[in-house]
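Form 7-S
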Amino acid sequence: MKNRMFIFLLIGLVVSCKTPQEDKVATTVSNYEALLQSKIVDLSYDFSDETIYWVTAKEFHLDTVAYGDTDQGFFYAANNFSTAEHGGTHVDAPIHFAKHGQTVDKIPLEHLVGHAIKIDVSRNALDNPDYLIGINDFLNWEKAEKEQIPEGSIVLLETGFSKFYPDKSKYLGTEMRGPEAIKDLHFPGLDPKAAAWLVEHRNIHAIGIDTPSIDYGQSTDFQSHVILLGNNIPAFENLTNLNALPANQFVVFALPIKIKGGSGGPLRIIALIE
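Output:
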């Protein structure tokens, strides 16, 4: 309440602004007020023993260190956790598939926070677990929205597969784990030709998808990863609640755990609908 009172007082002070600098302050206050009124959508899964990981990755594990009342009269809880970088809602840093790409701690914040759009291909993908999101899907979005994908956008791809999470057989295509399970993976992903088109014709900052990988399940060369991450475009994987987002006019905050030298890491990602 105090913060809102402070904002309202600021608005009153800057209503009569006339200098360019004061106009900037007024605009900042107005934008902050709009931010306060935005609808927040959580695009992240929680981490637990149900969290889905790549079939060869170490799964999430939580150890209870303490839980209960102490001899000093206060309650105390603490845990240890261990996990692979790539599992659940997480980021693929460029170095994951590019030798000289950015590590998690080096991804510019401007590529993790900003205006976003959503491409909904669920009508096609839900009936085809091997669906490849193609150039026409992006062109169809632009036709419907009557604009090109805005420069510097974060592009989110909705396949509808989040409805299957955490059922591994439906979400991944198999309940098996280990290298032998890779051949049985089936879920939609981005066509490498479309990934190259985005790099060559649309200057995007990041991309995300509601499946385990930006490449489709049957990929063996992971070319969409190679193309995007090779151009320092990070990928967000295992997103959820994309069905709650509009096609345009929202902002994404995608802040991963800041692992120095990391190739990826757990991600808390939210959207603010303007």
